[in-house]
Design goal:
mainly beta; four-stranded antiparallel beta sheet
């Protein structure tokens, strides 16, 4: 059997997705700082890769940044800090650096490089400037430590390591430095706040996992009041807790009003909150009364918020996108870029739509309505043809389903029922259902199955996400083989997600979510090549979740972390005869 050429790298063809939004609109505001002297509020909108500047009442003044890795460009920045001279220090998270700007957004300097050593960074997520010795304290997130630099960008010291012991961290998220030099760290993964002196010596530990008073669930930031009170962004409890200087509970702010508060800033007697999921800035008095709020979600056509999946029409002229954060489906013309959308504004009720598949029989679009635990089938005009499913564990019920594939020859659809750790199979109308799989790591078992695809012979490929592998099955669920393990090599995965079969080259394409890339596997499960890699540029990826192959051989990727859809193709196409998928020896 003729094999596809393996020396033809894939090249970027096109991308869709607006980046920076209009001033005052947010996708996911995660950072905030207030300059009381100039009466300006600086907001980091991480998914727009921007810093936006407002007055104290929320009137927009300026915006700067934009996705990229060059000077003045940002890539999913998480937070910022203000220096005594008005300089702005931005935690440029996915670029693994700190960028320094003037107050008007002029790029002044860039510090740091990727790595685990002193002065290197691995996803910095917050920064704060001390008032006494004028040091920059950095939460070096994936290195699980705190670094201290001077304001010229020179490394001074660091402390911390990964773990749950005193002085250790698990996914630290935010920090604040008091006038006495004490450093308060939001140790999110350990659901606590740790207090240190300026040299990293532990002073106290507050909090434990829970929803009660003085309990925390993923604390994301700390702010210090003039009276000594400590304000903690209790992110997954959707509130701010206020403790006194000894760590004793005083009160709660924002309960029932906030959704994933990410960062805090205090200005006099007012508390500014980056209310991330509500896509706004909320301002409270110190007793918890909401004074004002501003911000709006940017829902323009083509403005994706966490795209989860892609599919193409039968003729390949349009691309469907599951725009999960906007609870809608967008259809984009490959030729003109024209957008049609179907979602709440058009009367279609979806909640975090996930997988997509198009039937070659009638062009119907099958949508995995993940948050509603059901399947929705639309015609080419976005009209609902039928639905089935509800939350549960019986056949025909789902728990966070993720992906769907259609076998036109058999008239069957396959759905990864992720929360129930199984695959379900139905006819095209949702009837005659059955399932296979169970929780586990043995052959034919799954831990959060995610992607599913069918080849021209009816074989079914499933990405077994938490087992870091893919598994093949017969059309009736009979086990055929598997490939992959946790790692960084060709054919090794870190939480594989979307999968697709390309009829032009006979390869399976797997979105390697945690490694920010795609793999092309041949019919025996061997890795042919690794495609793309982490980055904000064209043909680069961040946390890809969905992949689809058109009949012309193009590969479409839901570049989730970059809020883009990208199209790739071989630089020199090799058109092959129809290739049958083989699974012996996998």
């Amino acid at each position: 059997m003729e094999q596809p050429a393996t020396d033809c790298p894939y090249a970027f063809v096109a991308q869709w997705g607006l980046q920076s939004g209009p001033l005052g609109s947010f996708l996911y505001p995660t950072g905030i700082a207030v300059d009381t002297l100039t009466q300006r509020v600086y907001v980091v909108d991480s998914r727009s890769h921007q810093v936006q500047v407002f007055d104290l009442e929320g009137t927009g003044i300026a915006a700067w940044g934009g996705m990229g890795s060059g000077p003045g460009e940002l890539w999913d920045p998480a937070a910022l800090a203000l220096g005594p001279d008005g300089r702005v220090y931005v935690a440029d998270t996915w670029n693994d650096r700190i960028q320094v700007f003037s107050s008007d957004g002029s790029s002044l300097a860039s510090w740091g490089a990727s790595g685990p050593y002193a002065g290197q960074l691995n996803r910095p997520v917050d920064a704060a400037v001390s008032t006494g010795d004028e040091r920059l304290y950095i939460v070096d997130g994936d290195n699980e430590r705190i670094q201290v630099w001077d304001l010229a960008g020179h490394y001074v010291r660091s402390w911390g390591s990964k773990g749950s012991g005193n002085g250790q961290f698990r996914s630290p998220q935010g920090l604040a430095v008091g006038p006495d030099g004490c450093v308060y760290v939001a140790d999110a993964g350990n659901h606590r706040v740790q207090v240190f002196d300026a040299w990293g010596n532990l002073i106290d530990v507050w909090g434990s996992l829970g929803a009660g008073a003085q309990q925390l669930n993923w604390p994301s930031d700390v702010a210090l009041g003039a009276s000594g009170d400590v304000f903690i962004a209790d992110m997954y409890n959707n509130r701010v807790q206020v403790l006194n200087a000894q760590g004793q509970y005083l009160r709660t702010v924002g309960a029932g009003q906030l959704a994933r508060p990410a960062r805090l800033a205090l200005a006099g007697d007012q508390l500014y909150v980056a209310d991330a999921v509500n896509q706004r800035i909320a301002v409270f008095d110190l007793q918890g009364v909401l004074l004002r709020a501003w911000g709006r979600k940017d829902q323009r056509d083509g403005r994706f918020d966490g795209p989860q999946a892609v599919a193409t029409t039968v003729d390949g002229r349009c691309v469907y996108v599951a725009d999960a954060g906007n609870d809608r489906i967008e259809r984009i013309s490959v030729d003109t870029g024209a957008v049609h959308r179907w979602g709440p504004a058009e009367g279609l009720t979806l909640r975090q739509p996930g997988g997509l598949a198009v039937s070659v029989l009638d062009g119907a679009l099958y949508v995995v309505d993940t948050g509603n635990h059901r399947i929705v089938v639309l015609d080419a005009d976005g009209q609902v043809l039928r639905t089935w499913g509800e939350r549960g564990s019986a056949v025909g019920q789902f728990e966070m389903p993720q992906s769907i594939a259609v076998n036109p020859s058999l008239g069957r659809v396959y759905i990864t029922d992720s929360g129930n750790h199984r695959v379900q199979c139905f006819d095209l109308h949702g009837g005659d259902g059955w399932a296979w799989g169970a929780y586990g790591s043995d052959t034919g078992q799954f831990r959060s199955p995610y992607g599913v695809a069918v080849d021209t012979q009816g074989h079914v490929l499933v990405s077994d996400m938490e087992n870091h592998r893919v598994q093949w099955f017969e059309a009736d669920g009979g086990y055929l083989g598997q490939a992959g393990s946790l790692g960084l090599g060709c054919g090794e995965f870190n939480r594989p997600t979307g999968v697709a079969f390309n009829p032009q080259d006979g390869l399976w394409y797997v979105a390697d979510y945690g490694n920010h890339r795609l793999h092309a596997l041949d019919s025996t499960g061997q890795c042919v090549e690794v495609i793309a890699g982490r980055g904000p540029g064209q043909g680069q990826l961040l946390l890809p979740r969905g992949v689809a192959c058109a009949f012309d051989g193009r590969v479409y990727v839901a570049d989730t972390g970059n809020n883009l859809v990208q199209a790739l193709e071989r630089r020199w196409r090799v058109w092959l005869p129809a290739i049958e998928s083989q699974h012996e020896g996998i």
